[in-house]
């Protein structure tokens, strides 16, 4: 397991009391070109099917993309998600770990597009392909 970088540690502290933290998201790398995090699948994250609840996968992937966006945006701006899409290819069960790896595909003045591949670390299989578009917004004044 690679050591956690400083930005990832800051994100763990920030998101800890929020939805990603409550879902068990842990961030291990956060640079402008790659954001990595994981969830260890627990009983609380299981859907009625016996497999990982799909919104937990989306929360992990969306948060990873959100962590990377500011590093590629102009100083003083903020952002919001304007579109996201997930294709599910598999899932995970209790006791398994899922990991997401988010990378920017387009870094523009007013938009960014991020992809995140979510894999079941235990089985080695890709379980989701996620794409996120962020709108870069000017800083709020007043």
Folded structure, characterized:
The longest helix is centred in the middle third of the chain and has 15 residues, at 54-68. The chain has a 6-stranded antiparallel β-sheet with strand order 1-2-4-5-6-3. Strand 4 and strand 5 form a beta hairpin. The chain has one domain: Hotdog Thioesterase (Thiol Ester Dehydrase, Chain A, Roll). The termini are far apart. Helix content is 21%, strand content 39%. It has 142 residues and is of the alpha+beta class.
Q: Short description, anyone?
A:
With 142 residues, the chain is of the alpha+beta class. The chain has helices at 6-15, 19-23, 54-68, and strands at residues 26-30, 35-40, 78-88, 97-107, 111-120, 125-137.
Strand order of the largest sheet: 1-2-4-5-6-3
Q: Give the CA-CA distance, first to last residue.
A: 45 Å
- Overall, the morphology is globular
Order of helices and strands: HHEEHEEEE
Largest sheet: 6 strands, antiparallel
CATH superfamily placement: Hotdog Thioesterase
**Oligomeric category:** single chain
